[in-house]
Design a protein that fits this description.
Layout: E1 5-8, H1 18-33, E2 37-42, H2 52-65, E3 74-75, H3 80-92, E4 96-99, H4 103-109, H5 131-139, E5 145-148, H6 150-157, E6 161-165, E7 172-176, E8 186-189, H7 196-206, E9 211-215, H8 222-231, E10 238-242, H9 262-267, H10 272-278
Length: 292
Amino acid sequence: MDQPIFRFAPSPNGELHLGHAFSALMTQQIAQANDGKILLRVEDIDTIRCTPEGTIQMLDDLDWVGFSWDEEPRNQSDHFDDYAKALEKLRSDGLVYPCFCSRNQIKSNANGEKDPDGAPLYPGTCKHMSQYDREKRMQDADAFAWRLDMDKAIEKVGDLTWQELSEDFTEVETVKANPAAWGDVILARKFTPTSYHLSVVVDDADQNITHVTRGKDLYFATAVHRVLQALLELPEPKYLHHGLILDDEGKKLSKSKKSLSLAALRKRGWTPEQIRVQLELEEEEDLDENGD
């Protein structure tokens, strides 16, 4: 049997917190238990918010908390050409179209439907624009995004499923994908030839990832990834969506909400062992009397 390959893929657009530590260390534990390889991917397609300093801090935090990986990290910013090629294939197949709507326009034109993340579902304003009007607006240097025509995509690939693993790897559930719930998702923008959805499936294929472990907040997004994998003829990994680390109010930890970071805990004197105990990845009795 081929060696399973796992990955952890954080973004250096802010300081890592306990949620990142949990996902990284849990992935590491699962990989080790299954004699697997674990890779690190730096998701830095946002070249404005993701800085070299942020990447250095992120790598230092991961090393401090005890996360290790095989091979050199893969930086997404080095692979824009790969994402552009994937987008071009979808364009040549007539599966994407340019959308010139701003966020405010989408919100004002929305019909009340929401995507699985709770955002207004794109109402398809630009979907039936004539080719002449599209080309004219693109030539006029208007800002635009490339959207996947989800109806055409579903018609092309048919019904899709994915294999969802239990956290102990003993059970497998076949989940029916519902990509239609997302509508015509954005795959790239005028000056950025990719989005999270497009880059993640290209990266997973290029890195031969066999098992994707990530938080339950990305559970429903897997439907979009399965569509793209089918359209681009990419292999299908197995998935494990683990529980999230929540704050005292029961909300997901977030960089944007300035959730307490690993760096801050480190300054307060926390040890990596205490982090693992806090995350219930290690038993407290494993620590010595000094907490080390």
